[in-house]
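Query structure, 706 tokens:
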């Protein structure tokens, strides 16, 4: 066959032959359809999905060029994802093809659309959604003559890279860990590429998935880039905008959004390039660098490079972990879709009787993290089916709820089609972080991050309702994570951060929350800059004794390496001997970190905490305070502080919410060794109680750090 190069004015190259013309899914102007690349590694290509939440979406439109006039047979790659929904039509030059698509086979395949007579030249193709319930199309092929029916996906990655980009450091995966790694390295002077397969950075924290950024923040960069809102909140889109603006201001950082990585090039055991599909331009790109970081979550870069990895749960017989199963298996944490509806003020129709059996009798108008499926599935091989099973449960439960007249005005407003994953592959490094590192608070000499979240493992509640889970969350306070879990054991120039870092299944249970994983990204970014400057590999950074330098570049206290910027600080905590708690108080583990010590106390509105202030000699001091990181769901905590020293009483008011989780300046005071601090709820507080955590004194003439 004679191959044709068909280049449109839109900038899209459509692969074509004399008797065949391919129209890629990513060549369409989406209209109301969405381009889905998350399962491309399994089904072979991007595809369009009509994710209208029960409302028909506007047409997706593409233009192509036919090399000759005459009869052309139209083939449509699609699948029947469920009986009763997902149907669509195809129009060629305004003429509707007879078949209705999305009603054929369950598996991805080519459906015959019949023949159309077309003139040579430009042709318009439209996808017309019929129901707003996730019809999907992975491309269209025009054939004529004896050209056989297409088989498999329209090839998008079987050609040599058409563009090559060179950098000092390439980060693949644009969730919070990837964003932090990229920005940290760029701010140290490296030329950095961030390769992200979605149109926005942020991953699970983005407005596309809308998971709150939980876990310990620790580093200011994490605070800069994290999501600022709770589960499902539409305001997460504002966090996306802030994150993009911050990253676009970095002169050494270039973001490659909607670039789906699909492979690597190697020289021996080293990666020399990551290959990606530029989805918007339908071209392949090679990103070359001496150093790479896998923050894909699924460990794809490591997998393609031959890195050692684990999948599933280790057995107690192997690891000695209390919370592991007795024998290992292939189970993982599941994947979720969080969803919500809202009042529209008028009747909104919604009916999905075909989905109601999948709801297992539930009637709901919202669903949170525990709408989770796939714990016993291979999420990498069956991700689309896992996502679809949760969607079916959502549509069915909401359809049941809409039968109640009280819900007549409700409509679905948040229901992502991007799956919120928790666990798949875990790449293996020189240290495999495990349960004992959390429970025993291992004092790593190469510690680079801290966590405070519980060991948070999920289990299906009832096999008859397979999409709802429960969690078990034993708490152990603050612990450390080591640098040696952030580089590959056998691929010498590969870092990893995010949920594919080196750990056991149980070991992942606590640090898998996004702020903690973002700390790992900060550490990798700093380490990459040190490796580039010093000319050593990620492993050599540790073996040549540079872990302490890495800690100092990150900032803060580490085991055996206290922060020199805070050498003059003196601390008193609610756990310190001599602190008096009057009234009703309860001890709280603080999952999201930022506290002084392992946790804090929360008292009833009339409770009082009395702290002996650590004054060694009379003088002028800065009084600083810290409370755990507080999310916007909390009422505004304001405390009244009474400082008594040398017969003098000073009254202060401190709003604990702004910049919670970080040390805050409260006042500058003249204090003697008898100084005491009383903490109570202020009259202006809207919080239901009072928080007692940590305070610090810093001599006024020697203040440094923050």
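Result returned for the query:
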């Amino acid at each position: 066959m004679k191959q044709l190069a068909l280049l449109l004015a839109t900038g899209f190259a459509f692969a074509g032959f004399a008797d065949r013309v391919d129209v890629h899914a990513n060549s369409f102007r989406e209209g109301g359809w969405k381009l889905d690349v998350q399962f491309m590694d399994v089904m072979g290509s991007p595809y369009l999905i009509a994710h209208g939440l029960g409302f028909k979406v506007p047409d997706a439109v593409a233009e192509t060029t036919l090399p000759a006039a005459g009869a052309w047979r139209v083939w449509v790659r699609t699948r029947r994802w469920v009986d009763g929904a997902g149907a669509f039509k195809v129009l060629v030059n305004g003429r509707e093809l007879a078949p209705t698509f999305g009603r054929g086979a369950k598996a991805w395949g080519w459906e015959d659309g019949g023949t159309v007579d077309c003139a040579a030249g430009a042709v318009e193709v439209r996808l017309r959604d019929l129901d707003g319930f996730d019809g999907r199309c992975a491309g269209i092929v025009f054939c004529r003559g004896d050209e056989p029916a297409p088989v498999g996906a329209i090839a998008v990655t079987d050609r040599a890279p058409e563009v090559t980009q060179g950098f000092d450091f390439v980060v693949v995966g644009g969730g919070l860990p990837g964003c932090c790694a990229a920005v940290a390295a760029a701010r140290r002077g490296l030329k950095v590429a961030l390769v992200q397969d979605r149109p926005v950075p942020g991953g699970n924290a983005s407005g596309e998935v809308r998971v709150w950024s939980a876990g310990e923040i620790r580093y200011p960069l994490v605070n800069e880039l994290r999501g600022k809102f709770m589960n499902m909140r539409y305001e997460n889109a504002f966090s996306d905008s802030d994150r993009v603006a911050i990253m676009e201001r970095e002169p050494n950082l270039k973001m490659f959004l909607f670039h789906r990585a699909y492979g690597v090039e190697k020289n021996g055991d080293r990666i020399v390039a990551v290959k990606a599909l530029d989805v918007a331009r339908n071209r392949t790109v090679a990103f070359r660098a001496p150093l790479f970081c896998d923050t894909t979550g699924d460990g794809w870069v490591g997998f393609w490079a031959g890195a050692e990895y684990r999948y599933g749960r280790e057995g107690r017989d192997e690891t000695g972990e209390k919370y592991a199963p007795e024998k290992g298996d292939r189970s993982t944490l599941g994947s979720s879709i969080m969803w919500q509806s809202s009042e529209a003020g008028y009747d909104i129709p919604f009916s999905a009787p075909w989905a109601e059996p999948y709801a297992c009798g539930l009637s709901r108008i919202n669903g949170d993290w525990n709408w989770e499926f796939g714990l016993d599935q291979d999420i990498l091989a069956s991700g689309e089916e896992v996502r679809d099973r949760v969607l079916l449960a959502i549509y069915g439960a909401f359809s049941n709820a809409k039968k109640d007249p009280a819900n007549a005005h409700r409509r679905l407003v948040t229901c992502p089609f991007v799956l919120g994953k928790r666990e798949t592959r875990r790449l293996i490094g020189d240290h495999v972080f495990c349960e004992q590192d959390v429970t025993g608070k291992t004092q790593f000499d190469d510690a680079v991050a801290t966590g405070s979240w519980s060991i948070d493992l999920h289990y299906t509640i009832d096999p008859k309702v397979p999409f709802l889970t429960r969690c078990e969350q034993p708490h152990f306070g603050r612990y450390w994570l080591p640098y040696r879990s952030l580089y590959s054991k056998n691929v010498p120039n590969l870092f990893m951060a995010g949920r594919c870092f080196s750990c056991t299944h149980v070991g992942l249970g606590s640090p898998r929350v996004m702020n903690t994983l973002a700390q790992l990204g900060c550490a990798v970014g700093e380490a990459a800059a040190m490796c580039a400057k010093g000319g050593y590999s990620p492993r050599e950074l540790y073996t040549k004794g540079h872990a302490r330098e890495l800690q100092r570049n990150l900032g803060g206290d580490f085991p055996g390496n206290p922060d020199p910027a805070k050498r003059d600080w003196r601390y008193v905590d609610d756990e310190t001997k001599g602190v008096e708690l009057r009234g009703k108080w309860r001890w709280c583990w603080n999952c999201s970190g930022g506290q002084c010590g392992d946790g804090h106390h929360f008292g009833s509105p009339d409770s009082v905490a009395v702290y002996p202030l650590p004054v060694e000699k009379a003088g002028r001091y800065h009084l600083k305070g810290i409370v755990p990181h507080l999310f916007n769901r909390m009422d505004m905590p304001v405390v009244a502080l009474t400082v008594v020293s040398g017969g003098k009483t000073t009254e202060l008011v401190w709003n604990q919410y702004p910049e919670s989780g970080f040390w805050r300046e409260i006042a500058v005071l003249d204090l003697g060794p008898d100084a005491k601090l009383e903490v109570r709820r202020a009259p202006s507080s809207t919080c239901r109680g009072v928080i007692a955590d940590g305070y610090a004194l810093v001599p006024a003439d020697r203040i440094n750090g923050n």
